[in-house]
């Protein structure tokens, strides 16, 4: 790949580089480049505009003098590529060996706060092993262990990325492998709490305590859920009370307006007086 990086109109990087897609960070290449390369054709040239999330994020890149949350522009040319092995081209032994490698790499990225890069690594484990069948007892145990770790770690990444629905989905899959997994229950509770699903979150934290009564964090989160539920209900009551008050005020104004019209009509009729025989006769000749 040939790439040139610009920030604020100043070029800060220009190089030819060879790397594995999803591991560009090892070569000081932002995750947005990895994402773009997945869609590019051999020989294609493109200009990419990267926001902070897909650039160098909050950390910036001091090596290049890039500040936190900077917007970047890259000119990228994909000169050539070698396609990675498809899942069906790998046997179970190779998948398990590669799963161990990418798990370690994902953990390294996570510890460095590079959550999008970590997601790519943990996602590889899922793509290789989730639909793997016909395993021996030993292989099945190893596969389930890698999958459980991958789903739990993906859930944590998505919590950090504030993608809470995806975090819940990964926890569900982890709990499908181990229904009493303490981390899976706790992380799902965290995600649901952040999605304002207080009752569901409280149920998850209560299940955590059933698994481990000594989990102080879960006890604390149950209190948070109860507090949030109370605040939410009180806010709803205030909203509905104001709504009904406005409806009542509107109805009162409409009633007052109607009464005023009726009174005006009565007054006009009274001032005009009752009809005489001459009036009725005149009306008849009109």
Automatic annotation (TrEMBL):
Gene: Fkbp5_0
Top-rank EC class of the record's enzyme: isomerase
Gene3D superfamilies in the cross-refs: 3.10.50.40, Tetratricopeptide repeat domain
SUPFAM superfamilies linked to this entry: FKBP-like, TPR-like
Pfam families per the UniProt record, alphabetical: FKBP_C (PF00254), TPR_1 (PF00515), TPR_8 (PF13181)
Statement: the UniProt record of this protein carries the keyword Lyase: no
Catalytic activity of the protein: [protein]-peptidylproline (omega=180) = [protein]-peptidylproline (omega=0)
TPR repeats: 148-181, 182-215
Domain of life: Eukaryota
Domain PPIase FKBP-type: 1-82
Keywords of this entry: Chaperone, Isomerase, Repeat, Rotamase, TPR repeat
Disordered, as annotated region: 255-286
Coiled-coil intervals, chain numbering: none
MF terms in GO: peptidyl-prolyl cis-trans isomerase activity
Protein name as catalogued: peptidylprolyl isomerase
EC number of this enzyme: 5.2.1.8
PROSITE patterns in the record: FKBP_PPIASE, TPR
């Amino acid at each position: 790949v040939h790439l040139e990086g610009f920030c604020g109109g100043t070029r800060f990087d220009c190089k030819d580089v060879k790397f594995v897609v999803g591991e560009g960070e090892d070569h000081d290449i932002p995750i947005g480049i990895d994402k773009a390369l997945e869609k590019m054709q051999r020989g294609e040239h493109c200009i990419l505009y990267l926001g902070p999330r897909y650039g160098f994020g909050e950390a910036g890149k001091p090596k290049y003098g890039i500040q936190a949350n900077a917007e970047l522009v890259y000119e990228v040319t994909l000169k050539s590529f070698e396609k990675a092995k498809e899942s069906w081209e790998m046997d179970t032994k190779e998948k398990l060996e590669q799963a161990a490698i990418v798990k370690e790499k994902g953990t390294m990225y996570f510890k460095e706060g590079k959550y999008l890069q970590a997601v790519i690594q943990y996602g590889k484990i899922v793509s290789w092993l989730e639909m793997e069948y016909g395993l021996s007892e030993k292989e099945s145990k190893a596969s389930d262990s890698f999958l459980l770790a991958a789903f739990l770690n993906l859930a944590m990444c998505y919590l950090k990325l504030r993608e809470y629905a995806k975090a819940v989905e990964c926890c569900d899959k982890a709990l499908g492998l181990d229904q009493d997994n303490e981390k899976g229950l706790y992380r799902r509770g965290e995600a649901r709490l952040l999605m304002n699903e207080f009752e569901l979150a409280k149920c998850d934290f209560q299940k955590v305590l059933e698994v481990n009564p000594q989990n102080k964090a879960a006890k604390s989160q149950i209190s948070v859920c109860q507090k949030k539920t109370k605040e939410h209900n009180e806010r709803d009551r205030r909203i509905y009370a104001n709504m009904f008050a406005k409806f009542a005020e509107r109805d009162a104004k409409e009633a007052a307006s109607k009464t005023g019209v009726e009174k005006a009509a009565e007054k006009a009729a009274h001032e005009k007086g009752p009809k005489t025989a001459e009036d009725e006769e005149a009306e008849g000749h009109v």
